[in-house]
Amino acid sequence: MTELGPVAWPPAPIRTERLVLRESEAQDRAAFIELFASPKVRTYLGGPRPRDELEREVPELPGRRPGLFVIDLDGAMIGAITLDRRDAERPGHIRPDAGEAELGYMFLPGAWGCGYAAEACAAALGWFAGAFPGEPVVLCTQTANDRSTHLAAKLGFTEVERFEEWGAEQWFGVWSPVASSGLREIRPDQYGHPAPPVRPHVRPGSPARKPKRLGSLSNASIG
C-alpha cells in the first residue's frame, strides 16, 4: 500500500447531505482505536487487534496522511475512507504496471444501515475524479462480505475477477469516472461540495508526536 502521489492535501473538507469528509484530528483517536478493536468491524480484516496494544501504538494524531478521509457526522467520527495505491505484489490488477488507486473503508457498527457508507464513498470517489481525471479506482473485499459487495455494486464498481488471498475468496472490482455503458460522466460536484473549514480540536498540552500510518482499510466490514 502506497500513497496516491502528487496531490494537494488535505483538500477542503467535503460536505454531503449528512456528512463531512475531512482530515483527521486529535479528537478522533478513540474512534480509530474502536475501529481496529471492534470484532464486528474486523470480521473480514483478520480479526480485532488488542485494545491495550492500540492504546500504546495509535498516536495522538492518527491517520493524518494523504488519501485518508475521516467521516464526520455531527462533529463525531463514524468511520474512515482511504484511497491508496494497490501494492504491486498483491493479486488483482487492471493495468500492467499495477499501482491502481484502491478504495478502502471502515465504519463503526453504530453507523451501519443508515446509508452513510455509500454517501461518503461516493463523495470520496467524486473528489478522486476531480484530482485524477479519467483514472479508475479498484476495490477488493471478501466475497463473503455481503454488505461490502452490495456497497461496491451500489457505487458502480464492476466485478473483474475473484481470487484466493489470506485464506478466503476475494471479490475484485473496478470503478471508472466515465461509465462504459454510456451513462453521464461522474463529476466531483455530484457527490459533495467543500464545507466550511473545520477547526481542529487539540488537547491543551498534548506533546507533538510523529503520526503513525494505520493499517489498510481494504476488505472492510461495512454497514
Question: What topology emerges from the helices and strands here?
Answer:
Layout: E1 14-15, E2 20-22, H1 29-37, H2 51-57, E3 68-73, E4 76-85, E5 101-107, H3 116-131, E6 137-142, H4 146-155, E7 158-165, E8 168-175, E9 193-194
Parallel strand pairs: 5-6
Antiparallel strand pairs: 1-2, 1-9, 2-3, 3-4, 4-5, 6-8, 7-8
Q: In CATH terms, what is the fold-level topology?
A: Aminopeptidase
The largest sheet, given as strand count, sense and whether it forms a barrel, is: 9 strands, mixed
Report the CATH superfamily. Gcn5-related N-acetyltransferase (GNAT)
Number of strands: 9
Q: What proportion of the residues form beta strands (DSSP E)?
A: 15-25%
N→C terminal distance: 24 Å
Could you give the order of strands across the largest sheet? 7-8-6-5-4-3-2-1-9
The CATH architecture can be named as: 3-Layer(aba) Sandwich
The total count of helices amounts to 4
Order of helices and strands: EEHHEEEHEHEEE
Structure description:
- Residues 19-190 form the N-acetyltransferase domain.
- Keywords: Transferase.
- This is GNAT family N-acetyltransferase.
- This protein is α+β, with helices and mostly antiparallel strands.
- It has a single domain, classed as Gcn5-related N-acetyltransferase (GNAT) (Aminopeptidase, 3-Layer(aba) Sandwich).
- Helix content is 19%, strand content 23%.
- It has helices at 29-37, 51-57, 116-131, 146-155, and strands at 14-15, 20-22, 68-73, 76-85, 101-107, 137-142, 158-165, 168-175, 193-194.
- It has a nine-stranded mixed beta sheet, sandwiched between helices.
- A hairpin with a 2-residue loop joins strand 3 (68-73) and strand 4.
- Residues 180-216 and 219-223 have low confidence and may be disordered.
